[in-house]
């Protein structure tokens, strides 16, 4: 996949973070301290002149009391046919090419939301990542449980001190409270499906 393909640009992302911070009457330095980053970095992200890694983006939104999914959910336009629901709104069909898609600024990582929204008990994500791309930085820890399966490409996945390479049709299940990280490895783009409960991404 190409960097920046169909993605939210850095200026739009920075504007969203600034809006969330200001709504909480939080200063740049307060957000920086809570997120474990420098004040100048927060300022650069908000102005769209710095692209946060996925790891630092998660730190920023966590410090604001939100998840990446919640922050970006309203930033990516829905297409007219994104969801087709039954009369009782309990069944949702999300067509390929019509789902909410996020490409993180400055990366070659894309997520598509396969669950209708983040208010359900499960969050299901279609993951695409170019070789060498991944969660970056420090391992993530949060509440819940996760399960993922590789569709194509290969993924190096670490939980605690253990590390595996997952190939097509390989799956992994683990408690999200264990430190975990991942990276797309090999010569082709990684495609995987990821399930998180409760939605915390």
From TrEMBL:
Pfam families: Cupin_2, HTH_3. Keywords: DNA-binding. SUPFAM superfamilies: lambda repressor-like DNA-binding domains, RmlC-like cupins. CDD domains: cupin_XRE_C (cd02209), HTH_XRE (cd00093). GO terms for cellular component: cytosol. GO terms for molecular function: DNA binding; DNA-binding transcription factor activity. Residues 17-71 form the HTH cro/C1-type domain. This is MerR family transcriptional regulator.
């Amino acid at each position: 996949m190409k960097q920046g393909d169909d993605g939210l640009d850095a200026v739009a992302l920075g504007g969203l973070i600034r809006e969330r911070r200001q709504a909480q009457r939080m200063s740049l330095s307060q957000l920086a301290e809570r997120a474990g980053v420098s004040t100048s970095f927060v300022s650069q992200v908000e102005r769209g002149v710095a692209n946060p890694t996925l790891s630092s983006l998660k730190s920023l939104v966590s410090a604001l009391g939100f998840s990446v999914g919640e922050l970006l959910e309203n930033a990516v336009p829905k297409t007219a046919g994104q969801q087709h629901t039954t009369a009782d709104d309990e069944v949702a069909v999300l067509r390929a090419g019509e789902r909410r898609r996020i490409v993180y600024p400055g990366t070659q990582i894309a997520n598509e939301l396969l669950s209708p929204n983040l208010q359900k008990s499960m969050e299901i994500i279609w993951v695409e990542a170019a070789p060498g791309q991944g969660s970056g930085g420090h391992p993530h820890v949060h509440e819940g449980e996760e399960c993922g399966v590789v569709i194509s490409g290969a993924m190096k996945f670490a939980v605690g001190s253990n590390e595996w390479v997952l190939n097509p049709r390989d799956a992994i299940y683990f408690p999200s409270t264990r430190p975990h990280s991942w990276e797309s490895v090999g010569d082709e783009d990684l495609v995987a499906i990821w399930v998180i409960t409760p939605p915390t991404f």
